[in-house]
Amino acid sequence: MENIEELIKTGKASIVDVRTPSEFMGGHAAGSINIPLQEISQRMAELKNMKNIILCCASGARSSQAAMYLEQNGIDCENAGSWMDINSYC
Questions:
Q1: Which domains does the chain have, with CATH numbers?
Q2: Using one digit for the tens of pLDDT, what is the confidence trace for 48-79?
Q3: DSSP string, 3-52
């Protein structure tokens, strides 16, 4: 996968925020979609259709769990940590 910052700046990334819907409503990275961590397994078909998946959450802990699960299921992705860090690239 290319550099995370480059993918985001060029609009080639699928930014997936794994926080709860209420956290997401309180603020999120521009262009990101919300797939809460507890819904990842039910939304695998949707995720398999995405390219250059960049995961984020509040601190990087939940996105790390999501990245591990996705990679174990053959989906290439990157954990970018906090959504606020990603937002600085948008």
A1: 4-87 (3.40.250.10)
A2: 999 999 999 999 999 999 999 999 999 999 99
A3: -HHHHHHTT--EEEE-S-HHHHHT---TT-EE--GGGTGGGHHHHHT-SS
pTM for the whole structure: 0.94
Clarify whether 56 is annotated catalytic. Answer: no
What residues pair up with 33 in beta bridges, in sequence order?
16
Of these residues, 56, 57, 77, 90, which one is catalytic?
Answer: 57
Please report, for residues 8, 11, 13, 48, the alpha-carbon distance to residue 74 in angstroms, rounded to integers and kept in the order given: 22, 23, 18, 9
Contact 66, 19 (CB under 8 A): no
